[in-house]
Amino acid sequence: MVITVEVKKMYKYPFELVVNIHLNKYPTPLEEHVTGIQTVEEKTDNVSGIIYRRKIATCNNVIPKFLRKINFLNVNDVLIEEESWLDMKQRILNIKSRCLTWAQYSTFHEVSVFKQSVENPNWTEFHQKGSIVVTGAGKLNRLCEVFAEAFFNKGVKKSVNIMETILEQRCGRPFL
Predict the structure, then answer these.
(1) How many Å apart are CA 58 and CA 1, to the nearest integer?
(2) Taking residues 71-82, what's their average pLDDT?
(3) Who wins on pLDDT, 173 or 94?
(4) What angle do CA 129, 131, 137 make, to 5 degrees?
(5) What are phi and psi of 95, to 5 degrees?
(6) Where does the record place the PRELI/MSF1 domain (predicted)?
(7) pLDDT confidence of residue 53
(8) In the β-sheet with 51-60, what is the strand arrangement from edge to edge?
(9) Residue 136's pLDDT is what?
C-alpha cells in the first residue's frame, strides 16, 4: 500500500528569506531528531544560473522499540538525501528527498517546491508531497506503513512550524 502525505502552505515572507531559512534551518534546537547536515555536492550551472546542492541529513531513529525487533529497523541513525535546484531567475526551489538507510526495504520519496506567490510577490508558496511503501518487513509491512503515515503527518506539521518560528524570530512578523 502506498502512503502519501501532502501539504500546501503560504509563507507571508519573500522568496529569498524563505529559501535561505529552509536551506540553513538544520540542525536547530527546534528539531532534536536532525543531528547533522552535510553538503556533499554543490555546483552552479554557468548558463542557467541554477544552483544544485546534494545534502545528507543524519537523523535519530524514531521507530518505536517494538518495531526495532525487525532487525533492519534497529539502527541508531537514519540518513536522508536531499537534492535541490535553486533557480533565482524563475524564483523557484525544487527539492527531492529520499531515505538512504532503508532503501532496500522501503521506498520513501518527498518532493517539495518553494516559489514566489502569484498572489503577492512578497510571499512564498510551498507545496510538498511525500510517499512511502514498505516491502521488506513481510507481514509487518502494513504496521510499518501505519507508523510511517503517522510520523509523516506529524513531521510535516512540525517542519512547517519550525519554518514559521525561525522566519518570525529572524525576520519579524509576516509581510502583508
Answers:
(1) 27
(2) 91
(3) 94
(4) 165
(5) -135, 140
(6) 1-175
(7) 98
(8) 3-11, 124-134, 106-116, 92-99, 77-87, 51-60, 34-44
(9) 74
Beta bridge partners of 38: 56
Instruction: Report which residue type is found at 108.
Output: F
Query: Crossing angle for the helix pair 141-171 and 15-24, nearest 10 degrees?
Result: 120
pLDDT digits (tens, 9 = 90+) for 90-138: 999 999 999 999 888 888 899 999 999 999 999 999 999 999 888 877 7
Burial of 78 per CB tally in 10 Å (0-12, 13-18, 19+)? buried
- For the chain, the farthest-separated pair of C-alpha atoms sits apart, in whole angstroms, at 52
Residue 48 C-alpha cell reads as 542557467
**CA atoms of 63 and 52, how far apart (whole Å):** 31
d(CA 169, CA 78): 29
**What are the pLDDT digits (tens) for 27-69?**
899 999 999 999 999 999 999 999 999 999 999 998 888 878 8
Can you read off the three cell numbers belonging to residue 142? 502494513
Grid cell of 91 as nine digits: 524564483
Which grid coordinates are listed for 59?
Answer: 537523523
Q: C-alpha angle 5/116/43, rounded to 5°? A: 85
Amino acid at 50: I
